Hints:
The protein has helices at residues 4-33, 40-47, 51-57, 61-83, 90-107, 109-118, 123-142, 149-175, 180-193. The chain is mainly alpha-helical. Helix 1 (4-33) packs across helix 2 and helix 1 packs across helix 4.
Amino acid sequence: MAGPAAVEGRQARRRRATEERLLDAALSVFLERGYDGTTTGEIARAADVAAGTFYLHYRDKRAAYDKLCMRAAHELLTQWRAALKPGRPMTEGVVAALRLVADYWRADPARAQLLLEGGPSLGSVGHLRLVHEIAAVLAAHAGGGKPTRAIERQAHAYALVGLGMSIELGRLVVAKPDSAQEVDDLLRLVRGMLPVA
């Protein structure tokens, strides 16, 4: 007989699986009907769950959309962390992140358009959270695991530049899917603008 811990683990796994199914359905419906044309009922139907189940996981379609944005950001952060080499200058970390972002947006221009232009803005709290996450990664890699205050401040500045440029790269890819040369030019510009740190 399974104990309470096993039941809780199973319940948590089921909850996570349902949330992921709802997010996948939300992405599919948002891509098909647009953010404004989508209802929570359509998302629930596409996920093959009851309409009330949607509300057990998400407050409204905006919450599901925000979670899609954060999921994309965390996929990119995970890929970026894996690609970073400790002790490299922050400039190289920002350029590596921007290259990954350009490839990510280029892999699915419809998703890029939806997440960058097709729905509501992530909002200042979401953007600040991303800036802090990016800055923490930059500072840890540049500071060898023990960054100084100066490195942390510089990492925040570089994170702000990187996040802003990643949004612009996405818009460039959406507007011009065959934009490899423009992306390379933009990355050279960023590399030249940021002091090596």
